[in-house]
Amino acid sequence: MEGAFTAHTKYDAAADELHAVTYYPTWDHVRHLVIDRTGRVARTTRIPVADAPMMHDFALTGKYVVIVDVPVTFDMAAAEAGAPVPYIWNPKHPMRVGVVPRTGGAVRWFEIDPVFYSHTLNAYDQGDTIIMELTTMPAPFYAAGRGNGGPSTTGTPVLDRWTIDLRANRVRSTRLDDLPQEFPRVNESLVSRRHRFAYAASAAEMWRAYETVDGIPPDEKFTNCLVKHDMLRGSRQVHRFPDGAAAGEPVFVPRRGARDEDDGYLLSYVHNPDRGASDMVVLSAQDFTGRPLARIHLPERVPLGFHGSWVPDA
User: How deeply is 245 buried, as exposed, middle or buried, from its count of CB atoms within 10 A (0-12, 13-18, 19+)?
Assistant: First the structure.
């Protein structure tokens, strides 16, 4: 591997492949990498892209890799000035969705109206379309902030669905849920395949970083909770934590021997205001609004927004 890696890989359990899309400020392209089970890069596909955009996440289906070319691009002047996040909102850079065969090949581009794409929930093939579910924020998005100490946007993250029609050459966007939420996850065994259940975090404290550029405070409906979506029924459940708590990304862990998609547990870092530190909270995914199964007291506070993956203890 050369250059950089990515914050968000996608593991296809059926194919036993790890996929990544990497970017780097001096490249005139991004790279789709396939990593085999030995940890070696088995294949690299270079995808030409101008202006060195920030590609924090991507999507994977059974047939395709989906990249999102956002108008957040590298700024050399900011880098030379020592900016910790040398990326700017670039209105001259068109917003596009790119579709590349998983096995390599040319990219197909689809232009869409500008938004900021944050994180992928999941994606899958459906006939001549690709279904991609993700969190987005309204444009413009200022990765380096606007004087408030954190990233800024004109609205909060919401859950959307993009339907990429490969035959009609267009992308249709549908709002799935306007509750402010971030860090969406699914049962990882279903990455790149159709899922029913999804999980996300909605923490009031987190949204303070996204206060709008005109100074309007966050909406009253911001709360400290975890969310479970049922995509089949189009419904959601909310597990609320006490005032002053702040819930982070929920990670699904299947129960040993599980047969149902949601038969398992949700792990999340939740700030405990009484202790001034974080708890690792374990919920039953099938009894989502019930009392936590366990609460592990950690000695320090885990930074809100920290997120990642878990592996079994060997």
Answer: buried
The answer to whether 135 and 118 are in contact (CB under 8 A) is: yes
Q: How far is the CA of 276 from the CAs of 224, 229, 239, 244, in angstroms?
A: 16, 30, 21, 10
The predicted-structure confidence for 42-73, as pLDDT tens digits, reads as follows 999 999 999 999 999 999 999 999 999 999 99
Report the pLDDT value the prediction gives residue 152, as an integer from 0 to 100. Answer: 73
Structure token pair of residue 257 = 């021997």
- Of 213, 228, 222, 265, the residue nearest 246 (C-alpha): 222
195-231 pLDDT, tens digit each:
999 999 997 777 666 665 555 555 554 578 999 999 9
Q: How far apart are the first and last CA of the chain?
A: 27
Do 175 and 165 touch, CB atoms closer than 8 A? no
Structure-token pair, residue 213: 């550029």
Cα gap 289→153, rounded to integer Å: 31
Q: What are the tens digits of pLDDT across the range 92-138?
A: 999 999 999 999 899 999 999 999 999 999 999 999 999 999 999 99
What confidence tier does 155 reach under pLDDT thresholds 50, 70, 90? confident
Number of other CB atoms surrounding residue 246 within 10 Å: 20
Q: How far, in Å, are 5, 91, 94, 146, 179 from residue 157 at the CA level? A: 25, 20, 21, 18, 8
- CA neighbor of 225 nearest in space, from 211, 245, 209: 245
Q: Which residues pair with 71 in a beta bridge?
A: none
Residue type, 305: G
Burial of 184 (0-12, 13-18, 19+ CB in 10 A): buried
Extract the tokens encoding 220: 């009253």
pTM of the model: 0.92
